Amino acid sequence: MAFSEFRPLDEKTLVDYVKAVPALSSKLGGNLDDLTIKEVGDGNLNFVYIVIGSSGSLVIKQALPYIRCIGESWPMTKERAYFEAVTLKEHGRWCPNNVPEVFHFDRTMSLIAMRYLEPPHIILRKGLIAGVEYPLLAEHISDYMANTLFYTSLIYRSTTEHKKAVAEFCGNVELCRLTEQVVFSDPYKVSEYNHWTSPYLDEDAEAVRNDDGLKVEIAELKSKFCERSQALIHGDLHTGSVMVTHDSTQVIDPEFAFYGPMGFDIGAFLGNLILAYFAQDGHAVGENDRKNYKEWILKTIEDTWNLFRKKFTALWDKHKDGSGEAYLPAIYNNPELQLLVQKKYFEDLLHDTVGFGSAKMIRRIVGVAHVEDLESIADPSKRATCEKRALCLAKMLLKERRKFHDISEIVSAVRNVQ
Q1: What is the C-alpha to C-alpha distance for residues 81 and 190, in angstroms, rounded to an integer?
Q2: Pfam families per the record (predicted)?
C-alpha cells in the first residue's frame, strides 16, 4: 500500500504514488521522473489521470468523498471505487473484449489503475454529437450486455452464489440512493437541483411534476430498481460510459454497479441513443441535415436489442441444464416450455427496458444532470425543440410501455415524433 490514509492526489503526488507501487511502476518503464500526466476527469464524481511513461501507459481514477461537480456540500462515499473495481473485474471476466483490464486497486486511497484506452478511442457521446457511425457498436454492446447480465443472473447461477453477491453489493447503497433521487424522485417534484432550458420548457417541467399517471408508473419502476436483484448491472450505462473506435467498444465507469433489474442497463443505453437521435436536428448544418445519421442511430437501437436477445437466448439454451436455479431443468425440460418462458421473459424485459430508458430520458431533460448531445446545441430555442420532442416521446413510452411487443414498434414511435 503506497499511502496509509486517504488523500486526494494531484499530478505531483501521483508520481510518488506510482513509484511506490510496483504493479504500476513496472507498467510505465524505467524513468518515472519523466512521466506525462494529464487530468481528464470531466465527469460528475472523480479525478481521472492519464499516465504515460517511456514504455507504457495507464489510467488512474480516484474517487472523492463528495460529488465533484457540486462540491463538499454533497458528500459521497469513497467506497464506490471498491464496487467499481469489483465490477470491472467481474464484467471483464465474462466479457474481456469490452471491459478495460484492472492493473491495481487501492481501497484506502479509493484508487483504480487500469488500461489506458489510447486514441483514437473517444467517448461514444462525443462521436454521436460529431455524427460518426460505429459499424460494430451494436455487435459489441450487445455482447457486453448479454454476457454480463446472463452470467450474473439466476438463469446461470445458484441462489446461494447469487445471494452472496447481492449481499456484498448492498454496500453500494449511497450510489443507488443517488440514482433513486435523480432518476425516480427529483424530476417529479420541486427540487433545487432540477434545471431545464428556461423559459421554453417551463410548462413542460411543470407538466411532468403534475402528471399523476406518470407518477404512478415511475413509482413502479422505482420499486423494481430498489427491490429486484436480477443481475450485476453497470448502473450508469449511458453513452458517456462507453469509449469507441470503429472496431473497439469499451465500457467504463461502473461505480453505480449493484444487483438490480437488467432493463435499467439496457434502457439507459437505448434511452441515451434516443436522446442522441433527437439532438441531431440541433447539430445539422447546411447540406448535412443528419437525416441519414438519424436512421443509423435507429438501426443501432434495433440491432442492439435484437442482437442482445439472440445472444442472451443462446447462452440460456447452452446452459439450460446447468446450475442456474431460476428455471430448473427438472421443470422446464421440453423445448415448447423453454420457448414459452423465454418469450415471457423477454417481453417483460422489453417493458422494463422501455420504462427505465424513458425515465432516464426525462431526468436528462428536466432533472439535475443533462447530456452534452442536447446541451451543446447553442441556440436555446432549437435545443428546446429537440428536448420537447424527446420529452413527449419519453412520457408516452413510460406510460404506455406495455403496449409494445417488439423493438421495431419502439423505433417506429421514435421516428413518428413530430
Answers
A1: 31
A2: APH
Domain of residue 379, residue span: 122-416
Instruction: Give the range among 1-5, 34-38, 200-204 with minimum mean pLDDT.
Output: 1-5
Q: Does residue 222 share a domain with residue 74? A: no
Q: Where is 17: in which H helix or E strand?
A: helix 11-20
Average pLDDT over residues 347-369: 98
| Beta carbons of 294 and 280 less than 8 angstroms apart | yes
Q: Note whether 188 and 209 are within 8 A (CB).
A: yes
Distance (Å, whole) CA 133 – CA 292: 10
User: What pLDDT is recorded for position 44?
Assistant: 63
Which runs of consecutive H residues, i.e. helices, occur in 173-261? 173-184, 202-209, 212-227
pLDDT beyond 90 at 13: yes
pLDDT (tens digit per residue) in 212-241: 999 999 999 999 999 999 999 999 999 999
Using an 8 Å Cβ cutoff, are 249 and 120 in contact? no
Return the pLDDT at 373. Answer: 98
Distance between CA atoms of 203 and 19, rounded to whole angstroms?
56
Q: Is residue 256 part of a domain?
A: yes
Distance CA 257, CA 274 (A): 23
Cβ atoms 30, 44 nearer than 8 A: no
> Is 386 found in the same domain as 251?
yes
User: CA–CA separation, 41 vs 48, rounded Å?
Assistant: 5
Supply the mean pLDDT for the chain: 96
Polymer length of the chain? 418
CATH number (domain holding residue 232): 3.90.1200.10
Tell me how far apart the alpha carbons of residues 293 and 231 are, in angstroms, rounded to a whole number: 33
The radius of gyration of the chain from alpha carbons, rounded to an integer in Å, stands at 22
Alpha-carbon torsion 27, 29, 30, 31, what sign? negative
